[in-house]
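User: Second chain of the day. Same drill as before.
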Amino acid sequence: MKRLSLLLAGLLAIAYGSNVWAANAYTQGAVHLRAGPSSDYPLVTTVPPNALLNLNGCLDDWTWCDVDWEGNRGWVYGNYLYYDYQSRRVPVIEFGAQLGIGIVAFSLGDYWGRYYAGRPWYGRRDYWMHRPLPPRRPPPPRPRPPVVRPNPPPRPRPPPPRPRPPVTRPTPDRPNPPPRPNPGTRPDPGSRPNPGSRPNPAPRPTRPDTKPAPKPAPKPAPKPAPDRPSGPDRPPN
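Assistant: Same format as last time:
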């Protein structure tokens, strides 16, 4: 009995603290008002864009906030709630710590008993009480100021390469090529060869005569002259 009274006193203190802190917030687009701090809980109603809400407090990570809108009590995701801060509207989920929003807890039995006794899903409160708690979405990363790092000193450039002396290589002696004809001069038409006649072939070299020279024939020996008779003793012919 003592524990129960302490629990009720704590819940009343939380509820009283949230009502004391209550402030105004605005919706960013059309948002769903849920019966608990999760999109798994039943839908209470849909709030139109740029609606003025009574903000009672948020969870310790500012992901879900307890609000009032036209007699409807429920929870709205903190990224869809905007708050006036330094002459501008900022999302509650990113600026909750700077805004000083009160931290509230959620107890399904007490919360539903006070605000949803006539709702269709109230008859299944035992199911929702013994149901595992839905996972809480981590808040988006907060923007960090850019880190300004000094520019490193420029690296010294390497010195340019020293010019190397040209290497002269001896060129082999080659015969001078024959002079090319000047393309601007045309040959004499009289010296052009006839396309129908073939050029005379170059004379072939004569081979030396290797045959021996003929030997001269021997001269006949002179015949002796007959003895002529002298006087009247010559025979007749």
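The beta strands are 23-27, 31-34, 43-47, 52-58, 64-69, 72-77, 81-84, 89-91.

User: Great, on to the next one.
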